[in-house]
Amino acid sequence: MRQDDHPARENSAEIGGSASDVVQAGTVHGGVHIHGQANSPTRRVPRQLPGDVSGFVNRSKELTALSTALTERHEPLVVGIYVLTGTAGVGKTALALHWAHAARHNFPDGQLYVNLRGHDPGLPVTPEQALDRFLRSLGVPPDGIPVELEDKSALYRTILAEQRVLVVLDNAASVGQVRPLLPGNADCLVVVTSRNRLSGLVVRDGARRLVLDTLSEAEAVELLKTVTAAYRNPDDPADLVELAALCARLPLALRIAAERASSRPLMLLHELISELRDESGLWDALTSDEEESDAVRTVFAWSYRALPADAARAFRLLGLHPGPEFSAQAAAALIGAGTARARSLLDVLVGCHVLEQRSPARYEFHDLLRAYAIDQVVTQEAEEDRRAAVERVVAWYVLSARSAVSILCPLDPDVLLDAPEAEVTALAFDGYDAAFRWYEEEQANFVGATRAAADAGLHRLAWQLPAVLWSVYAIQNPIEDWVLTTTTGLVSARAIRDRFGEAQLLASLGMAHLQSHQLEKAEEFHLAALAVREDLNDSSGIAQSTNDLGLLANRQHRLFAARTHFEQALAAFREVGDRANEAYLLSNLGVLQSDLDQHAAGIDTIRESLSISREVGDRLAESNALICLAIAHRRSGHLRDADSALRAALEIALADSYPVCEAVSLLESGYLRLAEGDPAEALPLFQHAASMQRRLGDRSREAIALDSAGMAYQRLGRPDEAIPFHRIAVSTHRDLGDQWQLALALDRLATALRESDQPEQARPQWVVALSILSTFDDPQAVRVRDRVTSNLANLADE
C-alpha cells in the first residue's frame, strides 16, 4: 500500500480518550482510597496443611493407593485427582491430612488447603472465595485478583502451570464447588474429601475414588488404645470391643470417647460404657436416624454432658457463630466473657476434641459438632439469650471493622452515627498490615454475620456492617460478598426505615455494579441513593451521589451529562467544605474539559486539584491528578510536561502500592510514546498495562490496553499482527455493552484490515462504527465520525 493510500489516522489528542476513560470512570470515586500491596505476584511457597492427626491408626490400603499417585505417570496435561468419600465422621479429613503430611516433600512448590464446608450448617465456601484465598497465598495481591470466577480460575491455573503443588480440597459438597479449583498440569495432585461420590469428577476429570468404610473392629480397638495409652492402665479387651461398637467404629466418635476415658483414668471402662449405653438408649427413644448417625450423636451427648457448666455453655453458644471459623476475641463477644476467660474455655473444648484449633489464633467446629451445638443452644438457651449472643458478636464485627477501616481508609467519613449498644471490646490495630490481615482473616464471616443479624431482627447492625466495609470492599473488589452483604443490609435498613443507612447501601451497590461494569444496575442504584439523600436533605450525600452519576456517565462517554454532574458535585462539596472530595472532583472535571478540547482550562483545573491533594495529604488523589495532568498536557502537545507529570504519578503509585494508578500510568505512558513517534517503546507498555488490568479483573480496561497494543503494531507497519488485538477488544466491548469503546475498537480494526489489503472486511466494521458514533455528539466523537466517513468514501472510490 502506498503512503498516500493509508486511511486517516487518529492524532495524539484522540488516542488519549481511552486513558481518560480509564482514569475517570472508576479509578477514584469520591473519597474511597485505594491501598494494597505490590501488584506483581511474588514467589511465595504456601504451606497451608493443618496439623497432622495424632495417633493415626491403619488405613494402610488407602494410604498405599494414595502413594501410588506419586509414582504413576499421568497424562501430560491431566492433573491427578483422588476423591476420598464415605459417611460423616469416618475419618476422610484425617486420612487426607495424614497422607499429605507424609507426602509433602514431593511437592516443593507448596501445599494448598481449604475446608469447603460443603456440609456445614452455615454457608459453604464458594469456588470464588476459595480461589481468592489460594491466589493470595500464591503471592497475588488483593488488588490483582480478578472479579469473575472464570478469570480467577484461569489465573490460578497459570500460576500453577510450572509448579508441583499438592491441593487438598476438604469437605466438598459438589463437583461444581471443586472443578474451578483444579490445577491444569499433571505435576500437581489434588485430594478431595466429600460425603458425596462426586461422580462427575470421576467421569469427566479422571478422578480416582477411594471409599472409606468404618474401621474394622481391630483397627477401632487399636485407635482407642493409642489415644488412651498415656493416661490409663490397659483396659479389658472385651470392654474396648464394646466401646468401639457403641461408637459405630467411626474415628470421630472413637477419638471423643477415648478422650473422655483418658480424662477419667481411675474409672473402669465398663462404667463409662454403661453411661454411654444410657445415653444411647435416650437417643434411641428420641430419634430414628441411621445407626452410624445415632452412634455419633450419642458420643457427642456423652462428652457434652461431662463438660463443666461454663464450658458446655460456651460450646453451645459457639454454635451461633455466623461464620466457619472464629478468633478467641469473637468467641469472647459471643459468650459474653473476657478474652482470657474465653481462651481458657476454648482450650477445654479443644482438649475434649469437640472443637478444632486450626492455627494458634483460629478455631472451628467439625460440621457434625457444630450441628450438635446448634441443637443444644436452641433447646437450652432462651430466645432472648440467643439473640443477645448474636447481637454481641455482630456488634464486635461492626466495631472491629470500623477500627480497621479507620486505618485502611483514614480519610473516609465514619458512617456509624450511633455506635452499637452491645457492650463488647472492639479490636485495635497497630498499623495498616494488622488491620488488613484482620480483614482477610474475617472476610469469610462478614456475609454470615450480616445475615445472622438480619435473621435475628438486629436490623441496625445488619446494615451497619456492610456500610462500614464499603470502603474496603471498593479497594479489594470482592464483588460477590460485597453485593450479598450490602443487599441483605439494604433490606434491613428499609425494615426499620433507616433512610441514612438505605442511602449508604444503595450508593455502595451502585459502586459495586459500576466496578463490575453492570452499568444499568449501577445507574438504578445511584439514582435511588440520590433520591433518598434528597429526601433527607443530605448535602454531602447528594454531592457524593451526583459525583457517582458523573463517573457513570463518563464511563458511558456521555460527556456533557458527566460535566453537568461533576460541576454540580464540585459546587456542593465546596459548599460543605469537603476539600478531599473537592480535589477528586477537580481532577474529574479537568480531564473532562480536556475531553471536550478545552485543554488549557483542563490543565488549570487539574493543577488546582493537585494543589488541594497535596494540602490535605492525599497521595492517591495526588497520583490521580498527576495522571490527569499528563493526559491534558499530551493532548495539548506539551509532551515534556506530560512526561514529567507521568513520572511523578508513577513514582507515587509504586511507592504507595496503588496498582490501579500504576496500570493507568503505564497505559498513558504508551500513548505518550506514540505521540513522540516511538511505537516500539509504546508496545511493551500497552502489553504490560493489559496484563495488569487482567490481574485487577477489569475486562474493559484490559480490552482498552489490548486495543492500544494493536495501534502500536499498526504504527510499526505490522497491521496483520494488530488485527487479533483489535478483534479481542471488539469482542470484549460488545460483550460488556460499551458502545463508545466498541466504536473506537471497530474503527481501529477496520484500519488494520484496510492496511492489510482486506478492504471488504474493513467496510462492515466501519459501517457499524459509524452507526454507533452517530449517537454521540462530543468533539471527539465528531472527529472520529468524520474520519470513518472519509475512510468509507475512500473505499467506495477504489
From TrEMBL:
InterPro entries reported for this sequence: P-loop_NTPase, TPR-like_helical_dom_sf, TPR_rpt
One Pfam annotation reads TPR_12
Signal peptide annotation: none
Q: Where is this region: Disordered?
A: 32-53
Output the Gene Ontology terms for molecular function: ADP binding
Provide the protein name.
Transcriptional regulator, SARP family
